[in-house]
Amino acid sequence: MALNIADLFEHAVDVAAEKPAVKVGDRVITYGELESESNKLAHFLADRGIGAGDHVGLYAKNSIEHVIALLAILKVRAVAINVNYRYVAGELDYIFDNADLKGLVHDRVYSDLVAEVAPKHDKLQTFVVLPDPIEPDNASDCSSYGGVLLADAIADQSDARDFGERSADDLHIIYTGGTTGYPKGVMWRHEDFWRVLGGGIDFVTGEPLEEYDQSKKATQESLVTFPLSPLMHGGAQASLLMHLFSGQLTILEPKFDPVRTWEIVDREQAQMMFMTGDAMARPLIEAYEAGDFSGQSLFAIASSAAIFSKAVKERWMARFPNAIFTDSIGSSETGFQGTGMQDASALSTDGPVVSIGPSTAIISDDGTVLDPVADVGKVGRTARAGNVPVGYYKDPEKSARTFLEIDGVRYSIPGDYARIEEGNRITLLGRGSNCVNTGGEKVYPEEVEMAIKGHPAVYDVLVVGLPDEKYGQTVAAVVQPREGQKVELDDLRSFLRTHLSGYKLPRVLTLVDEIPRNATGKAQYPRAKELALSAQQAGTAQTAINGANA
């Protein structure tokens, strides 16, 4: 038995070859066709000397070709490296080097950047060029670095499944940028990745699945699932794979467009939607309220990886009273850690409140594993035991700080803080590295952001800490107002006093046209801090009249 990602996909193919697997726009590909096309590309890669353990970058937007390429890489036991398609040359140079790429699969529209960066990397010799899903007529020159168009690469290749045995110990790497620092590659064994991100554990009971449990579901009627994030994001990739293992239909879009999203939901009768907090939820509900859509085919609406605020949730729940709403927490270093079904009558303003998932623990700053019953109210770092990553690729120091052994148990502890609640639940407070220490008090940005988003004139916000002579740091809010609205610091502080303790109130306010976030909606805190500091130095930031830290 090999609990390998490629094997798990092939099990679904064997029982559901005629079922639709992925749909993008008007184009749909069945499980059998997806198998055939990925086998052809896998043979091309093998002919180029790419095999077990070799790293192949995937530098592409959401498309059927992206899925074909991902599966092809996995089939030859190579390692797919997710590359952010918004990277500029310097960032591409970093990841090509750090990930030790031997091959690259990329959308044709990025040919000029690849031509600029690739020659610096001697290991990188194989290039497969995909038709761009947004600019299909793009004819950028890829010949200077030996790029081969996908159609040419697979033209004379066999579609046979003849790749030999694979291993549950094969590595699957997810590069995560998080909110700070350079991207780092999280190394998962295939079986561990499947267990915690691919549906290999029952998320409710914690019971492990057997190898063929998901493929048995492929013989049943398909669910129509719609993950909205780019596949370059680990969460979206995991969602796709989980649904491929069980024979579901996945709808993909190369670009997030709120109006088009609702058109697709109604046309395809999508049943499950996966999104990234307010960055997607807010424009989606505003488009829904302004348009003429039904959307009532949706019975499950899930958010993860970013704040889904109380104010925005309430608007969704009013429009979709029969849908199930869930907040899930986790990271590229832990996988799934917990989920919570949201009750419209008891929404939290602090952060996502979820039931603690299997093998999830809360670790105090002194390294003690907290008791979810006896330690209600205490704050610690979220952690996961059991199926956890091997470590960070080429970074033993970061690995040693994140993957720790406590009382003989190995934990992944990436740095997210949470508060233990009654009933085996936790409230996620945010990443400790972003915590603001003001006068000795700890302030978690996500908690303040959740409260600020309840203000009617605020569209989006990030909270950072700025240097302060008296308190060490002061709480600063970087706010994107709603169109045509004004936000004043004194008014905002008055609004927040019913939601937050005085020391958590922002004392500096910077207004911006757009909050810095990456393509998946994740907050870019370093950039937000730069904006706040620049505004403070230029004298354009608003500062609280009352100098007290209250």
From TrEMBL:
AMP-binding enzyme C-terminal domain sequence ranges: 447-522
Domain AMP-dependent synthetase/ligase: 9-369
Superkingdom assignment: Bacteria
GO molecular function, one term: acid-thiol ligase activity
One Pfam family, short name: AMP-binding_C
PANTHER family: LONG-CHAIN-FATTY-ACID--COA LIGASE, NONRIBOSOMAL PEPTIDE SYNTHASE PES1 (EUROFUNG)-RELATED
NCBIfam families in the record: PRK07798.1
Protein name: Acyl-CoA synthetase
Species for this entry: Nocardioides antri
